[in-house]
Here is the input.
Amino acid sequence: MRFDPIYDGDFKEAVRSSLPKHHFIREYITGAHVLDVGCWIGGFEYHLVGSAASVTGIDIEPRALDVAAKNLPQARFIEASVLDMPFEPETFDVVTCWDVIEHLPPKTERIAMSEMARVLKKGGIFSLSTPSGKTLSKILDPAYFLTGHRHYSHNEIVNLVWQSGLKVKEIKILGGWYVVADYMLMYLYKYLLRSNKPLWKAFSHRVFEDAQREGFVTLFLVAEKQGNANW
Here is the structure.
């Protein structure tokens, strides 16, 4: 994604929008060495500092990483691609990948998954989110029609993870109409109004609650690296 300094530099919004992701994975974070792939400006990392043993984020956008490093000096941010990460095998206890694989160059998802599995310790936890392949999720995503924003089915993600030597522990499709409304507001403020989206507390709370309910918008997955995997 292209970095927009007006909208994408809003750290408070990044922290707010990362709350459902942290809630989904939080039981695995305490005392763990965590790598977040596609960290952008560090909104998810904000929730990890103080509980994880170490926090590392990578992204290919240097301007986003500058914002992250400024707001979170306690974490480590590195400019790197998930297709060729500068880490030794089995470095991290937890690897996360939130809303990233759909933005990778087409047909590189397997390479990315192989790299993330490589740097994950045996018995370690991998988690991702990505737009679900449900019809309603596609219809209500303007980027699906305008830019070919990819959506993935349950079977596509399970097969991708399994082929990388990971065993699925949990997979859910979460989020409904409040989450959709939140996305629509993002498009409105970022691309039309060219300003930061207001932080309405009551609405944000409804979005957070909706993002944790069974729905149709986003596919969330937790997997574990098998002890007999060879990397």
User: Anything to note?
Assistant: The chain has a mean pLDDT of 94. The beta strands are 33-37, 54-59, 76-79, 92-98, 120-131, 166-174, 218-225. Residues 202 and 208 are 10 Å apart (CA to CA).
